[in-house]
Design the sequence.
């Protein structure tokens, strides 16, 4: 962090937004001096007029939790696994408010109830691993609120959660800030998430605040090119779909190698000579809005910047009718628990009867929340996991039933891009080795031709040739994912299954990768199966979209049909909860439309699998499972209430 | 819980079976005729040897001999000592309390030294205290306990005259044997606990505990120690057998009674049934301890405990 200043007023919500390594979490942690002892902190932090940096440990402890409470990102690891929820709830009340065990218990139950935890008294006795992620985050919030602190600091409180749960948690935070006069400092990488909550926003880049101001002003008239770029590179569900996303070129600067001038200059579209030598300071650009930029952006709007550059012929228009991949009644079951003789072994039905066709040159998007079976479907299609039953036909080959030799011969034509470019590259292989490995394994390159082919692949994915001898840890996240894509392309496949290829990447880099994938699809006539939890990205990438829930497809249609006329209540709800980077829309939201958690996939509900969370569920939904019924024009939905497409046409 | 018990017994049973086979075969793995070895030195006549063979059942086929052996074991009959003529079970029963006492005392010493040293190192990794604790651990693992025992005797008994060099006779007589036997284990515990603590202090829930405003000692005792001690308990259990076998040597060094010295005597006197039975006895203890460790694990870690209940 370099010279970060901000103020938080009573009852105010301030959001600090920025990408990984920009210093936003460090800002939050430094407030109560929770940074590791190796951190050197200078400047001043004043809380109610008192100097936090000058406090003794004793004084600090009285502030921590009591006055300034924290909610952290990962609810899975933020609770001690070997202590009950009750013990962890009670200890703060007992330490700070000197409550007796009994009082603390009673108060904890109240608090758990107030954050919407069902049967709170019972939950006091359970251990963290017995609760879902959403429930744990509610516990964390209840804990943070327990001593009625003046300030709650929430560091990426919804990042590890599914969209439907994210909506619930955001609603909870909004309610808390409205009801109590608690100040909220929210740290996030996602502008959309904070749009509805924050009164003010501070955007950080490379350890500095580059822009800050009232939320509506920052969203409507950003005055720093970075803010502008961030807003422009988010594919939006509430706007028209564009073929190419605007992206911020380049990557985040290395915090260890500082150059002179503005840190954003190398990636900036408005860069001037001055920016390279003279770092701009924060200056007032409009009422209460400051930005650190030499350029005048008062006339530039987000919409202008986000407008498509050049409309290339879309893959959809070229997707001919030929089916490349056809999946019929695919099932993948995993045994769970222990086998007991003479009793059927319990199984987890990860994928339970999925049927879908993907046309050559098209993109099938698969969306759903964690545990819906989207990843397993993708892997089963490539036979990276063995399907339990069902048909997988790929260009005339019966992938599900061929022998190992035939499968190996087919492998070059079906490749995968993985979610996490950090762990899917072997740390001991150089970039060239990683990309070259499939070529060597499949004897796909002559001895002398290997190197030129690797360089060709690097160029294809937009990486300079000098990176060939680097190791993965020397690359940025975006570069690694480009290597992952180059590796997948090496054998000239016709099908690529991409499993959340951008979810581990920073927002500004995400658009680059999506654009790259679109361009490669056009150039190499690729067919994609694009798996993501993010409905706006799926809309951007896909020609056809399948929505999965607990191992089944609940709705499938052409992209435009699905997004304009969703028929399944789950699809409708998912579309309704996706946050958009617009404060007006976000503030106007009603309560989160999906209640509760995803049920345990090992034990799905009887009847319709969505009946536990569906706002429209009626008697029949609890007895009978709806078929994936054809609604016309290729639109199918598994809901008794789904209306046929044809009828709608006739109405018009 | 009951089910887990059954499952663990099902695992332990074949191990136990294997042990009895091995112990049984000790007698037959020694080169030469056991009866002849037993009578060595007394210039036996062939008749005497044959008579002993019949007496020992050695004239019967091997599998039958094993079955007979197993049958006797199941009746609690560990055989009769060649030397004293008394039942071996009695001999062991008379001596085991002493060995158990030494083993437990050594484990106690190990925990008493190892846990604080581990905590001191783990709470502030990289500090001088941590380096000191690391040095201690290396010494503890590297220095053999029998040599350390001699040093202890030299310092505390010979030079300072504060503790007896003989391992029996007074309550403080157990101090030096327990210290020399427990010291190696204390080093292992210290190192393990230290590394666990360092790892746990990096967990997000530790930051949460700090952010809650808990004092450093509360953070340590309420949130770090229980998690860090789980692997230590396993090690304690796994090392119990090692300490027990170490007791064999330490007993000899300090002239303490116990199964250790009994085993050494038995070996020297070629009292084969006694050797067999002591080995079998130690093996059984090993298995029982492992069994108990599994349960202790569940007691400490709710994730494991609840998985047991869930699988019921």
Sequence:
């Amino acid at each position: 962090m370099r010279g970060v200043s901000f103020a938080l007023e009573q009852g105010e919500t301030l959001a600090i937004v920025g990408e990984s390594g920009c210093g936003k979490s460090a800002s939050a942690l430094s407030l109560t001096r929770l940074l590791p002892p190796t951190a050197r902190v200078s400047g001043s932090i004043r809380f109610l007029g008192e100097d936090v940096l000058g406090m003794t440990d004793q004084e600090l402890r009285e502030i921590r939790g009591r006055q300034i409470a924290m909610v952290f990102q990962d609810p899975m690891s933020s609770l001690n696994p070997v202590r009950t929820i009750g013990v962890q709830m009670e200890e703060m009340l007992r330490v700070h408010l000197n409550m007796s065990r009994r009082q603390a218990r009673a108060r904890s139950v109240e608090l758990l109830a107030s954050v919407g935890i069902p049967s709170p008294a019972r939950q006091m006795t359970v251990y963290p691993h017995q609760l879902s992620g959403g429930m744990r985050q509610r516990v964390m919030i209840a804990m943070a609120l327990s001593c009625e602190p003046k300030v709650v600091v929430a560091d990426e409180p919804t990042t590890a959660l599914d969209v439907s749960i994210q909506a619930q948690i955001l609603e909870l935070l909004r309610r808390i800030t409205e009801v109590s006069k608690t100040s909220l400092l929210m740290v996030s990488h996602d502008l959309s998430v904070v749009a509805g909550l924050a009164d003010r926003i501070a955007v950080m880049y490379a350890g500095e605040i580059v822009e800050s101001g009232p939320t509506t002003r920052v969203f409507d008239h950003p005055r720093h090119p970075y803010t502008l770029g961030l807003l422009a590179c988010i594919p939006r569900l509430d706007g028209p779909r564009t073929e190419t996303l605007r992206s911020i070129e380049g990557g985040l600067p290395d915090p260890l190698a500082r150059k002179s001038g503005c840190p954003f200059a190398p990636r900036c579209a408005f860069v001037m000579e001055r920016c390279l030598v003279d770092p701009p300071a924060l200056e007032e650009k409009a009422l209460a809005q400051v930005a650190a930029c030499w350029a005048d952006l008062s006339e530039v709007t987000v919409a202008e910047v986000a407008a498509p550059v050049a409309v290339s012929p879309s893959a959809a228009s070229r997707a001919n009718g030929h089916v490349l991949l056809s999946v019929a009644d695919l099932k993948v079951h995993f045994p769970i628990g222990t086998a007991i003789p003479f009793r059927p072994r319990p199984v987890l039905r990860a994928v339970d009867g999925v049927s879908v066709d993907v046309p050559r040159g098209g993109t099938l998007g698969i969306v759903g929340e964690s545990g819906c079976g989207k990843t397993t479907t993708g892997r089963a299609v490539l036979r990276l996991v063995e399907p339990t039953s069902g048909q997988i036909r790929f260009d005339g080959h019966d992938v599900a039933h061929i022998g190992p030799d035939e499968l190996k011969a087919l492998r070059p034509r079906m490749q995968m891009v993985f979610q996490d470019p950090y762990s899917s590259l072997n740390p001991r292989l150089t970039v060239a080795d990683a990309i070259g490995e499939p070529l060597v394994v499949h004897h796909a390159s002559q001895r002398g031709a290997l190197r030129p082919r690797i360089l060709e692949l690097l160029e294809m994915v937009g990486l300079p040739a000098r990176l060939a001898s680097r190791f993965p840890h020397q690359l940025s996240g975006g570069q690694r994912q480009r290597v992952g894509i180059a590796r997948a392309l090496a054998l000239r496949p016709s099908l690529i299954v991409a499993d959340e290829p951008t979810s581990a990447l920073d927002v500004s880099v995400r658009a680059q990768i999506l654009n790259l994938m679109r361009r490669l699809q056009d150039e190499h006539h690729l067919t994609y199966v694009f798996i993501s939890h993010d409905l706006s990205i799926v809309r951007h990438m896909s020609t056809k979209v399948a929505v999965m829930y607990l191992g089944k497809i609940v709705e499938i249609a052409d992209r435009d049909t699905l997004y304009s006329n969703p028929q399944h209540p789950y699809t409708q709800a998912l579309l309704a909860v996706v946050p958009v980077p617009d404060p007006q829309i976000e503030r106007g939201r009603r309560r989160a439309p999906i209640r509760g958690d995803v049920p345990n996939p090992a034990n799905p509900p009887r009847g319709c699998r969505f009946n536990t969370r569906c706002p429209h569920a009626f008697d029949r939904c609890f007895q009978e499972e709806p078929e994936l019924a054809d609604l016309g024009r290729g639109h199918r939905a598994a809901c008794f209430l789904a209306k046929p497409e044809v009828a709608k046409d006739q109405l018009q | 819980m009951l089910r887990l018990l059954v499952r663990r017994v099902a695992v332990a049973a074949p191990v136990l079976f294997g042990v009895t086979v091995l112990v049984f075969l000790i007698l037959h793995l020694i080169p030469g005729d056991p009866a002849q070895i037993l009578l060595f030195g007394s210039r036996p006549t062939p008749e005497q040897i044959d008579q002993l063979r019949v007496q020992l059942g050695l004239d019967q086929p091997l599998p039958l001999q094993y079955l007979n052996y197993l049958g006797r074991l199941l009746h609690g009959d560990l055989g009769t000592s060649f030397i004293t003529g008394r039942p071996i079970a009695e001999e062991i029963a008379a001596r085991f309390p002493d060995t158990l006492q030494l083993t437990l005392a050594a484990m106690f010493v190990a925990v008493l030294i190892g846990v604080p040293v581990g905590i001191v190192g783990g709470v502030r990794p990289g500090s001088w205290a941590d380096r000191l604790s690391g040095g201690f651990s290396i010494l503890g693992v590297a220095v053999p306990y029998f040599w350390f025992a001699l040093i202890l005797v030299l310092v505390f008994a010979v030079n300072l005259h504060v503790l007896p060099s003989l391992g029996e006779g007074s309550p403080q007589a157990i101090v030096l044997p327990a210290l020399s036997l427990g010291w190696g284990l204390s080093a292992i515990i210290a190192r393990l606990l230290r590394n666990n603590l360092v790892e746990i202090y990096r967990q997000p829930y530790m930051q949460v505990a700090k952010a809650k405003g808990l004092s450093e000692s509360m953070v340590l005792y309420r949130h770090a120690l229980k998690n860090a001690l789980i692997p230590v308990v396993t090690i304690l259990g796994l090392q119990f057998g090692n300490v027990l076998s170490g007791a064999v040597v330490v007993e000899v060094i300090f002239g303490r009674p116990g199964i250790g010295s009994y085993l050494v005597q038995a070996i020297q006197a070629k009292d084969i049934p006694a050797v067999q039975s002591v080995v079998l006895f130690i093996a059984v203890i090993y298995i029982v301890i492992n069994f108990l460790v599994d349960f202790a694990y569940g007691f400490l870690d709710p994730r494991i405990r609840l998985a047991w209940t869930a699988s019921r």
Observations:
- Chain A touches chain B at residues 29, 32, 34, 57, 60-66, 69-70, 72-74, 77-84, 87, 91-92, 95-96, 127, 129-130, 140, 143, 337-338 (CB under 8 Å).
- The longest helix of chain A spans residues 507-524.
- Residues 212 and 218 of chain A are 7 Å apart (CA to CA).
